[in-house]
Structure prediction request, 246 residues.
Amino acid sequence: MLRAEIWDAETAERYDTPGTGMFAPEVLGPTVDRLAELAGGGRALEFAIGTGRVAIPLVQRRVPVTGVELSRPMIDRLRAKVDEATIPVTVGDMATTVVPGEYNLVYLVFNTISNLLSQAEQVECFRNAARHLVPGGCFVIELWVPELRKLPPGQQAVVWDSEPGYIGLDTYDVLNQYVVSHHFRFDEGRQAQLGRSPHRYIWPSELDLMAQLAGFELESRHADWTGAEFTADSRSHVSVYRLPRG
Prediction:
């Protein structure tokens, strides 16, 4: 599955869920608060900007945001909300696409770096972030922690969410460090709709090494956007990497 095939018009059409899921105020509010703080009054660049879930409220907080996005259907959804002058977007890959200007903040949220399916691409994503930042600028990544501890011997799948009308499970290829997320949506009938997306999972320590290769230093790591402590039981993390100021 190519990324362009996953983030197609159908996916873009049903991506936004106003007020619920990743768009819920308790999820989105702390995300925007923290990113606005890290921007420090400067400009921000969002890799994989999507439909503007984070960028639009960030602009409303007077943080200028530019975006990079591979999917034209996702950009079309964004353009139904704001114009090019409000949030400029360049079509391209977050690992290689260069946009004009310098930024205080580059950010990549909601596990999106794992959409890059090789370690080399993920390292290049860090390097691409670094080339856009001013000295002292930071790169922020939100990423889930692989749940391999839930895999008993011989089992390849983990159910990570189960609720009325929805089941989410991941199948792991631990040899190649791949995971495919499966999303089953159904009603009271006999049929279910399946959506799938492939990822390359990354351990926090591996992410830190990628950052070092690009010239970053780890500044902080928390379990969420509110600053909760990151522990061995945390399911995700928000990591802030900063370039040296000198």
